[in-house]
Amino acid sequence: MTRGHFPRDAKLVILTGAGVSAESGLGTFRDKGGVWTKYDLAEVATPEGFARDPALVHGFYNARRANAADAAPNAAHHALAKLQAQWPGEVVLITQNVDDLHERAGSDEVIHIHGTLTGALCAACEHRWPAPAQMAPTDTCPACGAETTRPDIVWFGEIPYRMEEIAGHLDTAEVFAAIGTSGQVYPAAGFVEEAAQMGAHTVEINLSEEPTSPFFQERRFGPATAAVPEWVA
Ligand SMILES: CC(C)NC(=O)[C@H](Cc1c[nH]c2ccccc12)NC(=O)[C@H](CCCC/N=C(/NCCC(=O)O)S[C@H]1O[C@H](COP(=O)(O)OP(=O)(O)OC[C@H]2O[C@@H](n3cnc4c(N)ncnc43)[C@H](O)[C@@H]2O)[C@@H](O)[C@H]1O)NC(=O)OCc1ccccc1
């Protein structure tokens, strides 16, 4: 990590997107052959879609849960876990991804702003529990018994998780890095501007240029499994 820009124990805030899990075989969303080219986002990733057809939505997430379970963390996940363990300053890892590959690479604290495939949520009492491999509309909540269980995922139109905590980290970040994200989904896409306004050094690591690339002071293009270990080294 080129030290010039910040102190040895700087506070690092890192945001990851689907690109960091692409080389683990988990499709991204907006690239060629991406998830949103195969599925209609409004049908499978909105509360309205779930109300209309919960079986369709559970089927979509059951398939993604199975894919994620069969996948393995890659060199980018491992490099970030090593950075969290060894960097003298604070490292905050925020992910838009709903897979658990960061944790399986050894990252102990990961803020899942869009939820997780491994979690189930009761829409009635907000109880949370580990998701079974296959979820179905007839599943009942172990706490209140209601038949209102859903994947613990933040859908479009819903408020992302832990936003206050994240706002605090963006205000105090000395380095903000975005890795493998197209910067098209808000509020996450706006984090770079918030961090830059507070004086953070901003770094983009991505396969190629994105509309938000001009917001970053430092840009590193290449596959995450090469570019992230290089940046961390
Ligand atoms: C599409 C977009 C225009 N719509 C939105 O942003 C909406 C609406 C909206 C709100 N504010 C706005 C302002 C302007 C315009 C629109 C809005 N946002 C919302 O609805 C959000 C909720 C959004 C969350 C939706 N849920 C997801 N995921 C869970 C589901 C699921 O996963 O099924 S978002 C979904 O997209 C996220 C972003 O996608 P990326 O990760 O960036 O993936 P993508 O495919 O796009 O890009 C991949 C990148 O990787 C790169 N890459 C590929 N391979 C590699 C490689 N090998 N190495 C490195 N890089 C690589 C590619 O080049 C590319 O750049 C994903 O992470 C994924 O989580 N809620 C909200 O705003 O509530 C109110 C609010 C807000 C704040 C405070 C209070 C209230």
UniProtKB/TrEMBL annotation:
Substrate binds at Y61, R64. Gene3D superfamilies: SIR2/SIRT2 'Small Domain (3.30.1600.10), TPP-binding domain (3.40.50.1220). It catalyses: N(6)-acetyl-L-lysyl-[protein] + NAD(+) + H2O = 2''-O-acetyl-ADP-D-ribose + nicotinamide + L-lysyl-[protein]; N(6)-succinyl-L-lysyl-[protein] + NAD(+) + H2O = 2''-O-succinyl-ADP-D-ribose + nicotinamide + L-lysyl-[protein]. One of its GO terms (molecular function) is protein-succinyllysine desuccinylase activity. Zn(2+) binds at C122, C125, C141, C144. The active site is at H114 (proton acceptor). It comes from the Bacteria. Keywords: Cytoplasm, Metal-binding, NAD, Transferase, Zinc. Pfam families: SIR2 (PF02146). It is found in: Cytoplasm. The keyword Nucleotide-binding does not apply. Its main location: cytoplasm. Its EC number is 2.3.1.286. Its cofactor is Zn(2+). SUPFAM superfamilies: DHS-like NAD/FAD-binding domain. 2 residues (Tyr-61 and Arg-64) present in a large hydrophobic pocket are probably involved in substrate specificity. They are important for desuccinylation activity, but dispensable for deacetylation activity. HAMAP family: Sirtuin_ClassIII. Belongs to the sirtuin family. Class III subfamily. NAD-dependent lysine deacetylase and desuccinylase that specifically removes acetyl and succinyl groups on target proteins. Modulates the activities of several proteins which are inactive in their acylated form. This is NAD-dependent protein deacylase. The lineage of its organism: Bacteria, Pseudomonadati, Pseudomonadota, Alphaproteobacteria, Rhodobacterales.
